[in-house]
Amino acid sequence: MNLNQLKARSAVRNVVVAIAIAMATTSFSTASFAVGSAAQQAACTPDVMRLCLTSLGSDSGIIACMTKNKDRLSARCKATLPPI
Fold first, then answer.
1. 43 near 30, Cβ under 8 Å?
2. Residue 9: CB partners within 8 Å, gap ≥ 6?
3. The pTM is what?
């Protein structure tokens, strides 16, 4: 892969990340991520972004994803949740 291809790939990756962040910000600013307390949301948002990005916009989807990935949740997030 040459330098121009690497630069193009990096630029595409940056755009994808920017879109994902914009979508997440929009989702979190609406009622669509109203699952859990404010403390749970603060502790678990990084895990949701890391593990459940495709479930944004669906509270039941986020819950299902986090349950499926319970062993991969951060200690901070697990500390705020009841046993899953």
1. no
2. 1
3. 0.58
The tokens describing 23, both together, are 């979508």
Report CA-CA distances (Å) from 70 to 23, 53, 76.
Answer: 24, 15, 12
d(CA 40, CA 32): 15
Dihedral angle of Cα 64, 59, 44, 46, to the nearest 10 degrees: 100
CA dist., res. 69 & res. 54, Å (int): 13
Residue with tokens 């291809």: 5
pLDDT digits (tens, 9 = 90+) for 16-39: 444 555 455 544 444 444 567 888
Listed in sequence order, the residues at least 6 apart from 80 whose beta carbon sits closer than 8 Å to its beta carbon are 36, 37, 39, 40, 43, 44
**Exposed e or buried b for every residue in 18-51, given b needs 16+ CB within 10 A?**
eeeeeebeebeeeeebeebeeeebebbeebbeeb
